[in-house]
Model the fold of this input.
Amino acid sequence: MIRRLTFIALCLILSACGTGGTATTDAPPGSPPPPPPPGTSETQVLVEVALGEDPATVVGDAGGVLIGPVAGTAFYLVEIPAGVTVAEFISSLEDDGRVLQSEEDVGLSAPEGGGATLPFGGDDLTVDIGRQPELLRIGLLQAHARTTGLGVRIAVIDTGVLPTHPLLVGHIGLGGRDFVDGDLDPTDMPNGADDDGDGLIDEGYGHGTFVASLILAVAPDATIVPFRVLNSDSVGSASTLAEAISAAVAIGVDVINISAGMDLKAEVVKQAVANAERFEVAVITSTGNTGIQDVTFPATLSKAFSVTAVDSADRKADFASFGDDVDFAAPGVALIGAFPNPSGTARWSGTSFSAAIVSGAFALVRAAFPLLKADDVARRLRDTTVDIDPLNPLYLDLMGRGRLDLNAATAP
Done:
């Protein structure tokens, strides 16, 4: 009992703290510009050139070096010349008629990155995470009597996964990649270093494993295909996210889960998500843990489905971002999931995990109604949600259509 009460108190403290991004404020005149988001490249930019133009020649004329195309988009990744800042290089392209657009390769992170919310405790592996109260109350048992997500492949774009974890063994499919190390092994792993300089070491380790386990708790017969774009401190970039989205589409996944976001918009990611929609791949995103009306990108995209978090009483979680861009609400407080620690599980809070539940829900509905297109699956999930506006009078129409109801969504 004491351990349980301690956990609840700590969880409440962390939830109140929670942000994976920060709200912007007006800086005093003459203040230096804010630092770029962690992961933003200081040596590379993204450039789109006009049709028929040679990208190597265009960027070479500006002193840059072409690295290569970003799959699924019209952008090229470019190394800028030494001694030139990203802003200066982008400015130098503004008057070049051969350049359609250019942008920073901005940073990406999980909402729970930077210690916004942290995993706690840990029950042992005898815990059935698919039978935890937060999933039972949204109708998972009834849904499982009809569908378990068999045959549906879900790309988890995150810190990778630990494929040997007992709760994941036998559920990891082929085709994943590691865009951090540049190889074919997307294993979730620590490196013992504070890569982002925030005073925490490996605070992102286990994030992708936790996300994957919750998807499988909802859709136990689905297959997870992991793509590692976040390092062990939960930091990545827009270009690698776009590459991973395109790689997932190329191998024919049905759903893409992105439990990560960025403070700035990235056209390269927008194009990759649009490409996924063209191939009928549903992209599920977390809204972020800012706690305010500030949904993070790419959850703001109309072609992605965004998810915010509610607590056990269906009230908006303290940390959860909200806004007009939200599509769904799902449980996201003190969830049990797989974690690479001695107990094998942990409890964690965040919109990342609400998104995972919705990704699992997409798998259940897709398996139950295989003729439905991605938008039709989303519509069915939306039309069967539980109205939680009366419980959230301060957030009317800012938490999506309602809270997910798996029983209603999978009913004939």
About this structure: The chain has a mean pLDDT of 91.
